[in-house]
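Quick one: structure tokens for this chain, please?
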Amino acid sequence: MTTPAPRLRRPSWAGRNYTLLTAAAIVTNLGSHGALIAAAFAVLDAGGDGGDVGLVAAARTLPLVLFLLIGGAVADRLPRHHVMVAANALNCLSQAAFAVLVLAGEPQLWQMMLLTGLGGVGQAFFGPAAEGMLMSSVSGEQASRAFALYRMAMQGAGLGGAALGGLLVAAMGPGWVLAVDAVAFAGAAALRSLLDVGHIPPREPGGGLLADLRDGWREFTGRPWLWSIVAQFSVVVAVVGAAEAVFGPLVARDELGGAGPWGLALGAFGAGTVGGALLMMRWKPRRLLFAGTLCVFPLAAPSAALAVPLPVAGLAAVMFVSGVAIEVFGVSWMTAMHQEIPEEKLSRVAAYDWFGSVAMVPLATALAGPAESAFGRSASLWGCAALVIVVTAAVLFVPDVRHLTRRTKEVAAGPGTSTEAAAGSGLASADAESAAGRLG
């Protein structure tokens, strides 16, 4: 008698919504990471320079900044999966039009800026809805493990997408990579349409969109750890984004051999994030934000490596280490948000988080070209690295960043609750967790 093969079972914390969200994130990241490379080289192939690459990157981020807060409020009012599907549809159409434009030949700068801007609008509504949906799909002590696995799957797809995208841009041109991204958005929208929001309590009638925004603002400003790290990342994301979106392709073209090596370097970063997620599947730092913030310092290294510039192998090694480090921060940050923010306000608070983090990106990317002309490429990249180090050191002076502690029970403290007291209760829980033999 043949013994049937054992069936693979999902962990208890990986429910249907979580599985669908993870699968959709894999599909999206396979396309979008290659498309980022394709967009930059589409501009360069059309005769653009570093300033034009920066303008197209800024055109994506500016609508993201303008519509993020509205997107967060809408996501807390409407079923989040409907918002996500509509945003994916917009991204699909804009990327398909971009692909046709590039494949037809000689796209104009304003056309590329317009289409990438539409993609930014879609992301503004998608991001807060997706973050709120993910956090409401997991619960209990295994939340950080669920976030780590989700990010590992997402970043692993990004690894493959970046490496494959760079190779395809070199072999076939950027237009076909943009077309693949459009198809990926369509597939992700189909998966997200199957999400079930029946477990989420109906939203109580509120005082309107502005009232929701004010409520989210109170939640945001009432937590020093939250607004201080978001302020830090407004600088970090801006300068790292400028270095990788503008200077990276230019250094790759002039010093490293083109799109292929740059795609491999980005792929090494993706491999690092996968490694970091694997680490966070096992490691549960007790002081969440302190451990996470220390791991932001290595994000200065890629800018420094591009400033030298290091050979492809050295740049890839630096990108790998920074990928590991940022994943430690990312999982720690999501866990802190999950345990501290009430479910019905997750998307609004996430919108303020996103808004603060990306608000300076359009300015940084638009100024990257002029900065290169004024100071030189190497000096501009060294400046990016220095800014990351300075603002990260500054945020460690905030007591809540050093003391906010992991809890084993989910308690969403209000803005008026002392984080020091919350950290104390979390400390006791973490000690008990360590006594049970867990990493913490």
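The radius of gyration is 21 Å.
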